[in-house]
Amino acid sequence: MNGFRVGEDDFELDGRPVRLLSGALHYFRVHEAQWGHRLAMLRAMGLNCVETYVPWNLHEPRPGEFCDVGALGRFLDAAAGAGLWAIVRPGPYICAEWENGGLPHWLTGAVGARARTRDAEYLGHVDRWFGRLMTEVVPRQHDRGGPVIMVQVENEYGSYGSDQVYLRHLVDLLRAEGVSVPLFTSDGPEDHMLTGGSVPGVLATANFGSQAVAAFETLRGHRPRGPLMCMEFWCGWFDHWGAEHVVRDPADAADALREILECGASVNLYMAHGGTNFAGWAGANRGGGALHDGALEPDVTSYDYDAPVDEFGRPTEKFWRFREVLAAYAEGPLPGLPEPPPSLAAHVPVGLTEWAPLSAVMDSLGGPVAEYAVPPTFEELDVDRGLVRYAVTVPGPRQPYPLSVRGLRDRAVVYVDGERAGVLTEEEPALGVPVAGHARVELWVESLGRVNYGPRTGEAKGITGGVLHERQYLHGVEAGGLRLDAFSSADAVRGVPASEEAAGGRPGLYRGTVEVGGAGDAVIELPAWTRGFVWVNGFNVGRYWSAGPQTSLFVPGPVLREGANEVWVLELEGREGPDEEAAVSLAPLPLAPETP
């Protein structure tokens, strides 16, 4: 039989056994102008296949409103041009440390816990989305001359649910939309995950970072025949704001990769190249151990993942160790490394000469403001990424009482009668100083990323309970949202009324320019700034936060241009220190990893 198929013991291509040596590279985390370079790096490492998720919320920001779904098709074409097969993992849920696990906020806001089940309302949206998405996949399948050799059904569903009716619906939907290449599922190598997440007649694969022999033994207990594949070999890990940077020893990772291959299995490196969570798309996790029901742990902007190809597209020690392991399974000599992208040569100061207070930004770019009986959630205000300004009156006269927020997600900067009074979080939801009435209270609440894994995926953002003065709820709450995509119109951002007077580090929108000669990959550094977002020439390079561990933001070279470049900084809490200690600069990339 010709073409790619799942055989009794191996993957087969035109009737002969073939091993998949794949690597994860998410097209949505890499600037499109740099796809070719990153794909060539995968080929140079010894891979013959690339894998990507598809984030639904990126491509359908509102029901029936599609946004650049064709990016997936262009990426698959680039993979074919690089000589790589492709594995597509369309979800509808993807995890991926991505906002809401890829599910749109408007969807989870409407269906709640009915997401990822057989619920008719949920499936109606899935059917519409897949009807559009598969037009990018189906014509590019291997049996039609394209690179796509496999498509995934859901994602690690056994870590979440057990609705076999739902999974079977997805299988039938993919087939009805024209997917003819093999389908598969991927789950952790545990009995409850494999029974909950796999589908009879569909290839089951396993996700793990070590102990391949034991993992595949568990998989074989459920699937005695069929190719073995680790669909996610976790060769690194991701970072959370306020935590330590996570790394994995390259030698240990190479040994684990070797063990997978010595089992006769195929593999997908997760990640081969991680990239960047541009535009505030980073998700969040919940701590609390196996239940994933504890404190919020928001993910940083970088998705470097300690991958063999780092965030800037450079080979690391892990790359060279993996290349040595993979070379033994290649069908000939491995290609050399592609020419690296150009890099900025020297530090360049950014002149932030204009400032507008947050209130002016909200008035110019925010959504409509209305009064509600109780605080509306982000979902009710149609805010996916961004912040909401809540305002409420403490009636008076009354003596000072504690002011607190129930169900706060995630972080609120509080002002009382125009003066900053403190910062509230889920863990510390009460102001340290009592509030007397009559007083006007404003709470600027930011979502730090929706949960992307576990039972609290899809939870609402904003003030989900209420504002309390002592034990009394305060009603009549004004609210309006500011979405990050409101900054996609450069003319609108330039139109925010601003002053050229020194802002003294106050919260607000800072605007300025940086002169560049010899544009190339760079980072933007913001010492002494607290928390917010940065745009360069209208491109949102992501969130910064003094909590660390990330201390600078990647600016892809294609974003920059020779001469003057616009920079906007949206500071949400206010920075500390004198202006000279808080200078913003465009800088060369950090030192590259040592190479052989």
Task: Provide an overview of this structure.
The chain has three domains: 18-327, Alpha-Beta Barrel (TIM Barrel); 348-357 and 486-587, Galactose-binding domain-like (Jelly Rolls), CATH 2.60.120.260; 374-475, Galactose-binding domain-like (Jelly Rolls, Sandwich). The protein is built from twelve helices and 31 strands. A hairpin with a 2-residue loop joins strand 2 (11-13) and strand 3 (16-18). This is Beta-galactosidase. Its EC number is 3.2.1.23. Residues 507-565 form the Beta-galactosidase galactose-binding domain.
Task: Give a short overview.
With 596 residues, the chain is an alpha+beta fold.
Could you list some keywords that capture this structure?
glycosidase; 3 domains; Galactose-bd-like_sf; TIM Barrel; Beta-galactosidase; Jelly Rolls; hydrolase; about 30% strand; 6-stranded antiparallel beta sheet; B-gal_1-like; alpha+beta; about 600 residues; 8-stranded parallel barrel
Mean pLDDT: 96
Number of strands: 31
Strand order of the largest sheet: 4-5-6-7-8-9-10-11
Q: How much strand content do the residues show?
A: 25-35%
Uncertain parts = none
- End-to-end Cα distance: 43 Å
How many helices in DSSP terms? 12
Helix and strand composition category: alpha+beta
Largest sheet: 8 strands, parallel, barrel
Examine the secondary-structure arrangement and name the CATH architecture of the largest domain. Answer: Alpha-Beta Barrel
Provide the CATH topology of the largest domain: TIM Barrel
Shape: globular
Level-1 CATH class name of the largest domain: Alpha Beta
Organism: Streptomyces longisporoflavus
EC number: 3.2.1.23
Keywords: Glycosidase, Hydrolase
Catalytic activity: Hydrolysis of terminal non-reducing beta-D-galactose residues in beta-D-galactosides
